[in-house]
Fold:
Amino acid sequence: MSDTENFKRSVVILAPHAGGDSIAYAWLLKRLKDDGEAYFFEIAGHGRRLEEAYPKSYEEIVMDFVDFIRKKTEGDKNYIIAGDSMGAYLCDSAYGKIKAMGGKLPVHVIYGAIDPKLEINELSIKNIEKHNSNMDLLDRDNSYCRYLKDILEKDAELLRKSETWLSSILECEMSFFMGKNDSLLGDVRYDWSGLAPKGYREYLFDGEHLFMTSNKNVAETIIRIRSRYE
Structure:
């Protein structure tokens, strides 16, 4: 692919789920980079930024994400933001901040694995573990017990304390990604027209609670969405 073709494609910026890091998103990021420009936002205290101080507030993470977006889209580049679970909240919050500052807004927003009707105060590591159908695998994963569980718990706590909710009225089209058999959220059906008056589409993928990290169909769908904005 030529540099010219690469430049025409919208930049894709990924926001992590609670506990997510660059290692978890490595496969998806590589696939998206094969098609064009793509970046993953790493929260301080996670993954490659593990030595940095963990954020004191959700607001601190949002402003860091906004700064990341601005740096990666310099030169008036079109871009798409995508996040599942906590990442969807980050995308929503960043969108609101950028809009308030009069900055360039994304051409498309992707939310995944989120129930906009869910009360944030219900978010806890205990609740996540109770309803996660993959817990048997996580229990056998030493990295979850030694590292990921602590990070996930901190992320969930910051998000809960923030009392945030999906509130940005998008000036672009939106896509919603969901697993067909989500054991955490159940069968989510929601009228997004209030938040996405320009239009939205729901995508249901085979499997349990959806993480964007390694689902081939998710990657190819993001690429197809990006192709609409060349």
Observations:
- Confidence is low (pLDDT under 50) at residues 131-147.
